[in-house]
Amino acid sequence: MKFTVNGTEQNVDVEDDMPLLWVLREELGITGPKYGCGIAQCGACTVHLDGVAVRSCQVPASSLDGSAVTTIEGLGTPESLHAVQAAWVQHQVAQCGYCQSGQIMQAASLLETNPAPTDEDIDFVMAGNLCRCGTYPRIRAAIHSAAKALNKG
Amino acid sequence: MRYAFVLMFFASTALAAGETVEITPPTAVSPQDGLAAWSRIYEVTSHPRCANCHVGADNRPMWSGPSYGRTRPHGMNINAGESRIGAEYVPCSTCHALRETGANDAHHMAPQVAMNWQLAPVDAEWFGKSSVEICQQLRDPEHNGGRDHLALARHLDHDLILHWAWAPGGGREPAPYGLQDHVNDVLAWGVAGFPCPDD
After folding, report:
1. Which listed CATH number (3.10.20.30, 3.40.50.300, 3.30.70.120, 3.90.226.10) goes with A2-75?
2. What pLDDT, in 10s, does the model give residues B130-179?
3. pTM for the full model?
4. Which among A51, B19, B168, B186 has the fewest CB atoms less than 10 Å away?
5. Which residues of B touch A65 (CB under 8 A)?
6. Do residue B94 and residue A52 have CB atoms under 8 angstroms apart?
7. Do B79 and A124 touch (CB under 8 A)?
8. What stretch(es) of chain A map to CATH 3.10.20.30?
C-alpha cells in the first residue's frame, strides 16, 4: 500500500491486518510513536491520520492506501518547533517521556479543532492518553500556553 | 435527525460483508403475539450491546454488561459530543477505526466494524429506559426517523454496526436471539400494530 508519512511517500508490502504502529516502527524505522498497550487503552502510539489523531496500534495497514500520516517526527523540526512542542519545553512537561509523543500529537489535534480549550475540554480530549509519571497538570498548562501562542499567530 | 439503532462494539470477520437478512413480514399477527414479539425486542434493545451506545443528551457512552464488571461510563472520559461521533473531543474513530475486513475481537480492544462508529441519536435513548418507554419511542415516527416496520427492518439489514451486537467478540455477551430473529420480531410487532405493554 502507498501512503505518505511526514510528507514522504512510502510503499510497503505488509499483511493487511498489520497495525500502523508496526508499519511505522518495524517497517519504516519511525520510532517516535511508542508501543504502550496495543489495545487503544493508553494513547502512547497516537499519530495523525489525514489530520486526525488516531491510535496507530488500532489502524490496519489495509486502510492506509492514499492516506497521509504525521508522526511526532513530522509535527515540527528542532529549528521550528510546533507550538505544542515549544510549550512542552517551556513547561518541562516530560518526566520519563515515554508517553509524550502521543500526548503531543493528541494535544496538537485538539488545538486544530478547538483553538481555546477549557480545562474541561482538555480533560475530555486528553484523558485517553495516560502518563504514569503523572505529568497531567503540566500537560494541561502546556496546552493552554500552546493555544495562546497559536492564537497570537 | 436520522434514526440509527447504533450498537456498541464489534468483532468477527464474518461481519465484514454483514449477515444476510431476509425481510418477509407475516400476513397477520395477533395483538398477543405482537406483544410477545415486543417483549423479545425489548430484551434486545435493553441489552448492553445495544443500550451502551443508545445514551442520552450527556453524550457519554456506557460500559455495562457481564464483561464490564460494574456499570460505568466509557473509560477515558469519552464524550461523543452533540455530533454523537466525538467530533468535538475525541472522535470514536480514534480507536474504533473503520475496518473493512472486521477485526479486533481481543479482550478489551476497541471493537471495529466496516462502518463509522457512533452513538445513536438522542431521540433513541434506551439506556436505563423501561419496556413501555422504549416501545412508545420506537413506534413513534417522530422519534424513530419516520420509519414503519419495514423501514426498521431495512435499517437493521443495512447498518452493519448493528450486526455486530450479535457477534461482538472479545468476551462480550451478544445480544439475545439473533439478527434474523430480531428482524422477524420487528416485522411481527409492526404487522400486529405496534402494541405496547401499557396499551
Report:
1. 3.10.20.30
2. 999 999 999 999 999 999 999 999 999 998 889 999 988 888 899 999 99
3. 0.89
4. A51
5. none
6. yes
7. yes
8. 2-75
